[in-house]
Fold:
Amino acid sequence: MRPSLPVALLALALGLSACRSTPPAAPPPPPPPATAVVAPDDNLNAVLWMQRSAEYRAVAETVYRAASDRLAAALADPSWDALVPAERDRPAAGLPPAVIVDVDETVLDNSPYQARLVRNGGEYDEASWRAWAEERRARAVPGALAFAQAAAARGITVLYISNRAVALDRATLDNLRALGFPVHDDGAFMGLGTQVPGCQSQGSDKTCRRRWASRHYRILVQVGDQLVDFVQVPDNTPAARDAIERRYRDWFGERWFALPNPSYGGWEAAVFDNAWRLPREQRRQAKRDALDTAN
Ligand SMILES: [Mg+2]
Structure:
């Protein structure tokens, strides 16, 4: 905003007065803007990278292109399956093909929500998350839309298995459809709380929902940003997570396609023993303590 002329003259007068040997008493400083009191947020670089770097877009598009390139061969091989055998309730051969994708930070980009938390110094909570999801304004993760559309064009069903609460199914489906994602029917979205007959869900574990998929589909590929998007993680500790990654290393890039998510995830909670009840500073200290400075 430009100052009005009288204000500009006053400023000039004050400036001139500063040349005198005895300057007038300085006026009290204005109150700091609200943003000045916001504490530094460890997520700043992660969210900024996901929003502003060409590298993030390139990585996401690379992952999705690799997943797309796998579809033709997986479709042609009736024995091909991207579910671990323990999660398959019915033989895959002969079932119609599908792909399983996670939603948040896999097909939908919620970085504006994370950016708001960085800006206002907040932390994730259910109410603010729900409000963001209800806005239906998430954009597509780079490469996700082309992959989903390529699958649909081959007659492959896209199943969205998400840990968004089932109460957000309408908002999520609206958001996906508005972006052009193929949603064959409302049942394609299986949120947290989806009941699967004969399977008892534990927390946010997706095993029951994958088992439901195994009864109806042969799964060609899975795409996600968390280990739990691909297979059960019974123990969210760094060692157990590392063991799963080692065990299924050959599946990544072949049947499973993982997107980077440096802004949140099980990897973070594992470092502070999943103790979200701890004050933020204690969780932060646990993360600092987990840094490797030896090599
Ligand atoms: Mg996710």
